[in-house]
Amino acid sequence: MIELGQMTINLTDPITLFAAGGLLAFVLLVVLVLRSLAAANRAAQVVTPLAQQIGALGDRVQGISDGQHHLAGGITHVSELQAKAQAQMLETMERRLEEVQKSMGETLHGTSTRTARSLGELQQRLEQIDKAQANIEKLSGDVLGLQDILSNKQTRGAFGEIQLNDIVQKALPPDSFRFQATLSNGKRADCLIHLPNPPGPIVIDSKFPLEPYEALRRAKTARETEEAARALRVAVRGHIKAISERYILDGETADGALMFLPSEAVYAELHANFPELVREGFSARVWIVSPTTCMATLNTMRAVLKDARMREQAGAIRKQLAMLHRDVELVVERVGKLSTHFGQARKDIDDISTAAERAGKRATRLDSFDFEELGPKDEAEIVPLPHR
Predict the structure, then answer these.
(1) Are 204 and 189 in contact (CB under 8 A)?
(2) Distance between CA atoms of residues 165 and 127, nearest Å
């Protein structure tokens, strides 16, 4: 039993128990409702940002969808551009390929033309080579003939004289030399050059010792080389001595003579390996020359001859110069007179032009006059023209 003021509650009464249970259930229900409200409030608080995020996500999905649409359009445009670019590229490549093919065709045609021309030129050159080969074969025969000539002492001497004659005739005036000139001692010189004093006439001898030189060229051992060199020294010394004694005469010839070697090889051999022989020739006043150095020496002699003749002709030259000066003076005088005549003619032409100009002016004035009928008085004043 429970007493609440004047109310007594019997806990064993079923109604009380049922009321208490109902009350308890109500309380529990209220509590649950409150808790549900609280949970709903919290859920609402949680769902609100989520809803916002879902809304934002929806917007983004919509934007992505729009972007996909734009992207699809862009991809379509890009595909169209790519297809167009590929078509243009193919067209360009086809055009370039045609140009390359055309260029290659022209190049091949030009190459074939040049090749044909080159083959033609090659054929011409081969023909020239064949001709040169024939000339070489002919020259080889001539060389063999020359060797046969040089192998004989007499023919070799004649060959040297012919070569010397050719060089002298090309270098000097015809009246300045003489071949096979006989000196006062009875010796005959191959060539005598008439130089003025000093130095006076000078002799050129065309003989040369070829056998020792050929033996030196053929030598294979040191002993053979030494013997050939000794023989060459003896031969050249003997030749220098003979020229000095035969062709250098006091009061008749110059104080020196020339030993002509018609072989550049012998000349080079002497200067390269036998310089003492060259010095001995200088001491004996015998100058050793080759075809090249002989031409240079003769050109120097030609200058000496020209200078001597210029001195001999100096008086005549001065006389001719005086006459030339007088002729120039006459020309100057006549040009002055002609200039005077031209001046007078120019003055006459100017006077004629002035007179013609005055006559033209008067004719113009006469043309502008008004002629009236003449009366008796005027007719009496007319001056009649004489009849011819």
Answers:
(1) yes
(2) 37
* DSSP-derived secondary structure letter, 194: -
Residue 84 lies in a domain: no
pLDDT, tens digit, 9 for 90 and up, residues 71-83? 767 677 777 877 7
- 253 found inside a domain: yes
Tokens of 166: 């050719």
Residue 166 sits at the vertex; the CA angle it makes with 305 and 147, to the nearest 5 degrees, is 145
| HEC profile of 247-308 | HCCCCCCCCCEEEECCCHHHHHHHHHHCHHHHHHHHHCCEEEECHHHHHHHHHHHHHHHHHH
Six token digits for residue 23: 């009350």
Separation of alpha carbons 278 and 259, rounded Å:
11
CB of 176 closer than 8 Å to CB of 244: no
What pLDDT shows up at residue 109?
Answer: 74
Contact 253/199 with Cβ under 8 angstroms?
no
Tokens of 37: 């409200």
Q: Which domain covers residue 298, as residue numbers?
A: 157-320
Higher pLDDT, 210 or 227: 227
Lowest pLDDT segment from 51-55, 82-86, 353-357: 51-55
**Which residue carries 């502008």 as its tokens?**
368
Among 237, 258, 256, smallest CA distance to 248 is for 256
pLDDT at 360: 75
229/219 Cα distance (integer angstroms): 10
For residue 267, tell me if it sits in a domain. yes
Q: Which residues contact 146 (CB under 8 A, 6 or more apart)?
A: 159
- 3-class SS of residue 192: strand
Give the C-alpha separation, 191 to 212, whole Å: 25
Q: Which residues of 100-125 are buried (b: 16+ CB within 10 A; e: fewer)?
A: eeeeeeeeeeeeeeeeeeeeeeeeee
Alpha-carbon separation of residue 379 from 48, 371, 383 (angstroms): 149, 13, 9
Between CA 150 and CA 155 the distance in angstroms is 7
As for how many domains the chain has, the answer is: 1
Q: Which structure tokens are listed for 64?
A: 């992505």
The encoded tokens of residue 97 equal: 């390929």
CA distance 163 to 202: 18
78 assigned to some structural domain: no
Token pair 């060389």: residue: 143
